[in-house]
Amino acid sequence: MKVVLDRDDMRRTLVRMAHEIVEQASDPRELAIVGIHRRGAVLAARLHGHLTQLTGVELPLGSLDIAFYRDDLATRPEAPILQATQIDFDVDGRTVVVVDDVLYTGRTVRAAIDALFDFGRPARVRLAVLADRGHRELPIRPDHVGKNLPTSRRERVNVRVEEVDGADEVTITETEDLAPPEVAHALQTAGPDAPRR
């Protein structure tokens, strides 16, 4: 296992991303932050705190459960674990920053955009991710990246956050270190804590 971001690295990275979000916003008062469950929602709340300090504005904060928007829902071996979607503000005309922990194939983000548009029509949608590991299968590109992590498909990027896991860190692990070869593929594509698609 290789640690690529520790607690202090994660805090500094989120502060930098918050500054980038404000700098690229034509009017920070029109921003809204929406995290993808599970860890993306935690990171969104942290970004929201930094953005509130930077702008002096209490921006809208929401979260999305994309379980029923996934394109592999029919083929997943287990029932989805549901989290509460909370969008209690009007998204119309806003710049919505969608936050996730790891960007991989782009399929999770596509599902999140589908879910978001069920609540209205944002002026624009921007994507902020803590880690971009590559291997895109859809034409999705992040606007704000904490760290680019070139990886092989045999590797797994693990984001841990204090609120869920009891620690803050980003690590890279070989899938062979986690499971026998015959279940490595399942680890890469299934389960609530599997790498994001």
Walkthrough of the structure:
By secondary structure, this protein is of the alpha/beta class. It is built from six helices and eight strands, in the order E-H-E-H-E-E-H-E-E-E-H-E-H-H. It has helices spanning 7-24, 39-55, 107-117, 162-165, 175-178, 181-189, and strands at residues 2-5, 31-36, 61-64, 95-103, 124-132, 144-148, 155-160, 169-174. The protein has a five-stranded parallel beta sheet with strand order 3-2-4-5-6. It has a three-stranded antiparallel beta sheet with strand order 1-8-7. Helix 1 packs across helix 2. The radius of gyration is 16 Å and the shape is globular. Mean pLDDT is 88; it is low at 180-192.
Termini gap: 21 Å
If you compute it from the alpha carbons, what radius of gyration comes out, rounded to the nearest whole angstrom? 16 Å
Q: Compute the number of helices.
A: 6
| Helicity level | 25-40%
- Structural class, by secondary structure, is alpha/beta
Q: Tell me, what's the shape?
A: globular
- What string, H for helix and E for strand, traces the elements in order? EHEHEEHEEEHEHH
Average of per-residue pLDDT values: 88
Strand content: 15-25%
Q: Low-confidence segments, ≥5 residues, pLDDT <50? A: 180-192
How many strands appear in the DSSP assignment? 8
How would you write the strand order of the largest sheet?
A: 3-2-4-5-6
Largest sheet properties: 5 strands, parallel
